[in-house]
Specification:
Elements lengths: L6 E3 L2 E3 L5 E6 L4 E8 L3 H19 L3 H17 L2 H11 L3 H24 L5 E4 L12 E7 L3 E4 L13 H8 L4 E4 L5 H17 L7 E4 L4 H9 L5 E5 L2 H12 L7 E4 L5 E4 L1 H20 L11 E5 L2 H15 L4 E2 L3 H15 L5 E5 L6 E2 L2 E6 H6 L11 E7 L2 H10 L3 E7 L5 H14 E6 L38 E7 L18 E4 L2 E4 L1
Parallel strand pairs: 5-22, 7-8, 7-10, 8-9, 10-11, 12-13, 12-19, 13-18, 17-18, 19-20
Antiparallel strand pairs: 1-2, 3-4, 5-6, 6-21, 14-16, 15-17, 22-23
Helix pairs in contact: 2-4, 2-6, 3-4, 3-6, 4-5, 7-8, 9-10, 13-14
Length: 522
């Protein structure tokens, strides 16, 4: 498949009229053809209006037909073969194994939501039958969930497949019955076009309205703000920086009709090294930590950027082993020059900070990221917010505490996070119990004796957390729960069987339903 540099609007390839952008090969330091032009306001409007026109017909499809559509997208992505894999590698410097794994995850997410649609529980059907003899009488009441409407999705820089054109936000929105208008990421526009064309092909194969999916190309904050402000858009999915996410939140809130923004933004993912665990296996924990920190050159939203432990010889064993594992690490190409530049600035700021000591600092190189490990005291961490800021890359800070009480004090002061990890052995149970209530308030996923960089795509996964890890801590962007972001409830009172949606009829297709508050399976 030839990459043309086109946007895809209503099933048709169109050229933007604004500023141009070319992809960049970070490993070779070269721009990549072709040029992608930024879409203009009229093209954004066209994509949004077509999505709005497609909404009622698309959400009225049976669960099985929408499931088949999601599966067809996956099939079309796989049909791209090495053309897609090699373009991703060229635009990101990610190794083949990572790209192929991410492609599998992307297709797996689509299948996960297809299975959810066929299983049917997402409708959340509720029946409360009429009680005409009661005083006062109760009407017949039935409820189901429906899609919000067209969703604007912003592709992520660090996951060019799994959090991008056909990634989790797109898959969950399409599963909910919501057309998607996708803003491609400027760092991997060729990858975006290839996957976008696969989605458009699936739309054609399944005979769906062309407005179910559009892909917008280009650069500049104005493009994203214009998209979020469009009255046809009813929700937003975003993965990126805190500044970018908050700009979209502000734009959405300022609309005449405000809409929800589900933005995943920043997290330092604290790891609590509890005393017995450090005593028994400090070196093993250090080895696993180093591998987790450097995975993907640290460009993962669940990267363990903060370690908290009680001072003593066991912590010194850990820091010595971790430093040894990291200091010889090679500098590797990062996803883009912008990400590499921000990482270098963050590392330099910590290295030069008066209250921070450098434990390990592998040789740095322009455009690349090399491992770095620092240490500071709990008192400094608590008094200086700058030490809590995310450094997107393979860098982490050890915070040394006096005792479990100070560990808990630091935990109380943490911002909202995607994850928190408890490295613990049996003797650490009491300390873990004291931390757990705090962590439940602070994070979306709590791990024991693992590393947060593995995000399983399954029903129970939560990839979200209190602000600022996400703009709405009640949501997840991974797992079947992600569909609820793009749904809302509708209640039907005293409607005849002929007018009721099929899933709400007395002998309807609801697999799971609540009758008088009791969950049952048909």
């Amino acid at each position: 498949m030839i990459i043309t540099g086109d946007a895809l609007i209503g099933g048709k390839a169109v050229k933007g009229t604004g500023a141009g952008v070319r992809a960049y090969n970070p490993a070779l330091g070269q721009v990549i053809e072709p040029e992608f032009r930024t879409v203009d306001a009229s093209q954004i409007d066209q994509a949004c209006r077509l999505a709005d026109e497609a909404f009622d017909a698309y959400r009225a499809l049976s669960d099985d037909k929408r499931a088949t559509f999601l599966e067809t997208i996956g099939e079309q992505i796989m049909a791209l073969g090495d053309v897609l894999v090699e373009r991703v590698m060229e635009e990101t410097s990610l190794p083949r194994a990572r790209v192929e794994g991410e492609r599998g995850r992307t297709v797996g997410q689509l299948k996960l939501f297809a299975n959810l649609l066929r299983e049917g529980s997402w409708h959340d059907v509720r029946f409360d039958k009429a009680l005409p003899d009661r005083t006062p009488p109760r009407p017949d009441l039935r409820m189901r969930m429906i899609g919000l409407g067209p969703v604007a999705v912003f592709a992520a820089s660090n996951f060019p497949l799994a959090f991008s054109v056909a990634g989790g936000d797109t898959a969950s929105a399409l599963a909910a019955g919501c057309p998607v208008v996708l803003k491609a990421h400027f760092a991997h526009p060729g990858t975006s076009e290839l996957v976008g064309r696969a989605v458009v092909k699936a739309v054609e194969i399944c005979g769906l309205p062309a407005g179910v999916f559009s892909l917008l190309t280009g650069v500049g904050n104005e493009l994203g703000i214009e998209l979020v402000r469009h009255p046809a858009i009813k929700a937003v999915g975003f993965t990126g920086s805190r500044g970018g996410g908050m700009a979209l939140v502000a734009a959405a809130a300022a609309r005449p009709v405000p809409i929800p923004v589900y933005a995943e933004m920043s997290s330092i993912n604290p790891v609590f090294l509890l005393p017995e665990a450090l005593k028994n296996r400090a070196e093993d924990i250090a080895t696993g930590f180093a591998a987790s920190l450097t995975m993907g050159v640290g460009q993962l939203c669940t990267n363990p950027g903060l370690l908290l432990a009680i001072d003593g010889p066991d912590l010194q064993r850990f820091t010595a082993a971790a430093s040894q594992a990291l200091v010889g690490g090679a500098a590797c190409s990062m996803l883009s020059p912008g990400i590499a530049g921000n990482f270098a600035r963050g590392v330099n700021q910590l290295a030069e900070h008066a209250d921070v000591t450098t434990l390990a600092l592998a040789p740095q190189a322009e455009g690349k990221g090399a491992p770095a490990l620092f240490v500071s005291s709990a008192a400094s961490f608590l008094s200086q917010h700058a030490l809590q800021e995310e450094i997107f890359g393979p860098a982490s800070l050890v915070v040394v505490c006096k005792d479990v009480a100070e560990l808990r004090q630091v935990a109380e002061k943490l911002e909202g996070q995607l994850t928190a990890t408890l490295m613990m052995d049996e003797g650490d149970l009491e300390a873990a119990q004291s931390l757990l209530p705090v962590l439940e308030r602070k994070v979306g996923r709590i791990l024991a004796n693992g590393y947060p960089t593995g995000v399983e795509v399954c029903s129970a996964m939560v990839h979200g957390g209190p602000f600022p890890s996400t703009s709405d801590g009640r949501s997840t962007s991974v797992g079947t729960g992600a569909i609820t972001r793009f749904l809302r409830p509708v209640c039907y009172q005293n409607l005849s069987q002929a007018l009721l949606p099929e899933v709400l009829r007395d002998n309807g297709s609801a697999t799971w339903l609540r009758r008088e508050g009791e969950l049952t399976r048909n």
